[in-house]
Design goal:
Chain A has 179 residues and is α+β, with helices and mostly antiparallel strands. Among the domains of chain A are: 36-122, Macroglobulin (MG2) domain (Immunoglobulin-like, Sandwich), CATH 2.60.40.1930; 148-179. Helices cover 28% and strands 26% of the residues of chain A. In chain A, strands 1-8-7-4-5-6-3-2 form an 8-stranded mixed sheet, with no helix packed on it. Chain B folds into 2 domains: 1-30; 36-208, Beta Barrel (Sortase, Chain: A), CATH 2.40.260. Chain B has 3 helices and 10 strands, in the order ααββββββββαββ. Chain B has helices spanning 2-28, 47-50, 168-172, and strands spanning 63-68, 73-80, 99-102, 112-118, 121-122, 125-126, 140-145, 150-162, 178-190, 194-208. In chain B, strand 7 (140-145) and strand 8 (150-162) form a beta hairpin. Classes of the chains: A alpha+beta (179), B alpha+beta (209).
């Protein structure tokens, strides 16, 4: 009787454990989660009303996606699998009547219903809001010019070994040991 | 027994001598990257007319790769921002065949000035834009775009500027047609301060496919 009870308890525990794991894995990873910011990028960084904007969405898996630019009054637009790694790309036109400001653009990935978002910045003149770099660019350290310090050290060490060996041999010869 | 030992020491000595000489002489046998000649500099107003008609601007699209067949460049592009001082950031130096583009600016092929930068060398030797200074007017630069298209630029000028007299407006400033700048380190080199300036390639969009 006790044995049966123990067996039953064990089975129940195992079943509960299985239930728990399946429950955990069955819950969709993205369910209930708000849209992931940063998974969507809008190019160029600032768009003038009436111009086209390009959107890349990090959907993964090379799938397509459904874009939503209704925040700026441009409605829905499709995103097709792009050439980048698992990125879907699409275009929409910023309405000529759009006011300057920042708008949230949303894309819903086709395969897993995941939502990604990013910001669209609308400005009246394209160059006005753009931040230009200043000054020179640090794109070299001289590694193509000077000797590599490690290589130089290795060379000096090898020559030291050669000097030691040579000295030893000369000493033996001087002592008449012969080679 | 002693003879064997002597022979071994002699062999080790010979090998050490040879490899030591090779390491020291090989390490010093390096060349400065090529620098543009005065003939490749911009020639006033005529640059716009004489290097192929400008192609119509493309819609914006981030780039994936840059190819410069004349100097054997074929490299992926990573997005670049600005440093704290407002200068253009650079790609990670340890990846020698990686270039970058200024992500908060114009995308290559779009109207305006798109900016691409890459290392001339890293601690181990030449990098992606080592031969950029050897580029000549009329050479072709191709940029693969993420929308599947290719923007084709033609070189208008190859200049070298000192870091303390860098013409920001000319290099980075707005343009009314699709233009491209490709930047790497250049000019004289000093052990204490590194390269004294930058090689800058000026190009404009002449084709797309």
């Amino acid at each position: 009787m006790r044995r049966t009870a123990r067996l039953l308890t064990g089975t129940a525990l195992a079943a509960a454990a299985v239930g728990l794991t399946t429950a955990a894995t069955a819950v969709p990873v993205y369910a209930g989660e708000t849209a992931a910011p940063g998974g969507l990028k809008v190019y160029p960084s600032s768009v003038v009303p009436g111009d086209r904007a390009m959107v890349t969405a990090a959907c993964g898996g090379g799938g397509s996606a459904a874009g939503d630019a209704s925040a700026v009054g441009a409605g829905m637009f499709p995103l097709a699998p792009g050439t980048g790694d698992g990125e879907a790309t699409g275009h929409f036109e910023v309405p000529p009547s759009a006011q300057p400001g920042t708008y949230e653009i949303v894309a819903t990935c086709g395969d897993d219903e995941r939502r990604v978002t990013g910001d669209l910045v609308v400005t009246l003149t394209s160059a006005a809001e753009q931040v230009y770099p200043k000054g020179s660019v640090k794109t070299g350290v001289g590694g193509a010019l000077g000797p590599d310090p490690v290589q130089t050290a290795a060379g000096v060490a090898a020559l030291a070994v050669a000097a030691a060996g040579g000295t030893w041999l000369l000493h033996r010869r001087a002592r008449g040991d012969g080679i | 027994m002693r003879r064997v030992k002597d022979t071994a020491i002699a062999a080790v000595t010979a090998v050490a001598l040879g490899s030591g000489a090779w390491l020291l002489l090989g390490g010093a046998r390096t060349e400065a990257p090529p620098q543009p000649s005065a003939a490749q500099a911009a020639t006033g107003q005529s640059t716009r007319a004489d290097r192929g008609a400008a192609a119509p601007a493309l819609p914006p699209s981030p780039p994936d790769r840059v190819r410069i067949p004349a100097i054997g460049v074929d490299a992926p592009l990573t997005g670049l921002g600005l440093t704290e001082t407002g200068s253009l950031d650079v790609p990670p130096a340890e990846r020698k065949n990686l270039a970058g583009w200024y992500e908060a600016g114009t995308t290559p092929g779009e109207r305006g000035t798109a900016i691409v930068a890459g290392h001339v060398d890293n601690a181990k030797g030449p990098a992606v834009f080592y031969r950029l200074g050897a580029l000549r007017k009329g050479s072709r630069i191709e940029v693969d775009r993420r929308d599947g298209g290719v923007a084709v630029f033609t070189v208008d000028a190859v200049e070298v500027y000192a870091a303390d007299a860098f013409p920001d407006e000319k290099v980075y400033g707005a343009a009314d047609r699709p233009e491209l700048r490709v930047i790497t380190c250049g000019g004289p080199y000093s052990r204490s301060t590194g390269y004294q300036g930058n090689v800058v390639v000026f190009a404009h969009l002449t084709d797309s496919r």
